[in-house]
What we know:
296 residues; 2 helices; 40% strand
Amino acid sequence: MKFASLGLAAAAALAIGVAAGPLPGEPSPATHGARPTHSPSPHPSPSPQSTLTPDDIFHKAIAATRNNPDPPYITYMMHEIFVHHGRTFTYDYRVWYRTDGKGLMQSASPTRNGQAETRFGYPFPSAPDNNILLYATPPPPSSPPPGPIGTPAPGTAPPLLGVQPIVADRYYDVSLLGLEDYEGHPVYHLGLRAVRDEDQHPWKDLWIDVRSFEVWKAHASASGRRGPMTGSIDFSVVFAPVGPYWMVASAVGDGEGHFGFIGDSGHYEYAFSDFGFPATLPDWFFDPKAFYHHFR
């Protein structure tokens, strides 16, 4: 879960970006849908399923997340807002992302020497296709059918009479906090409490569509210690459909860290917009040596 492993500088939130352009000398990739849009509420509104337990709802959300299609390439703009000691800083980046984890980020504003700041690797704070539940409990292994009833041989286990599945989650205790409306969408509001290791399992709330079981919004909070470093982070992430895909649409967060007597904190916001899903991108986009050789 990439969001959960971010440092204090990875608390996320989204604002409005500008159109992503091509690299110098390259044609603009095809764009399939611009900004994330929330689809209108269905009519009539679907009714929640009263027979579902909170764990049922959580595991259906996990299944919906696993079934979401994942584009091989994504292009987008990221707008960053960073508030530090009362001062606000804003940055815009063009991003080209290949879903094997490689990415290229370029600052939309050139530096004093006229060159765009360029960064290779997994894009910060997270790629917009981040599916926050993919690390959750995997499907249980299939059990062999029960054998015939009989007297077990000496030293052998008695025969299996039947299998009764128990639906629970190994990471969280899950509760239903209520049925709510999220921007016209009826949702289950689930509360989550980490069974153990809150740093690795920081989610506190999920807002899940009562019909599709897609996660519209998630809230996390955690604190921990890494050696002499201590800190805390609190952030919320909003998702939205972009064409056939389910993308991170907005997030907002606050982080705080302490190293001995030295402490610092900040408020972070990020925005993804102007998505494109090209069929392919050149390999040299994601190779620093080949990239700089291309522009010699």
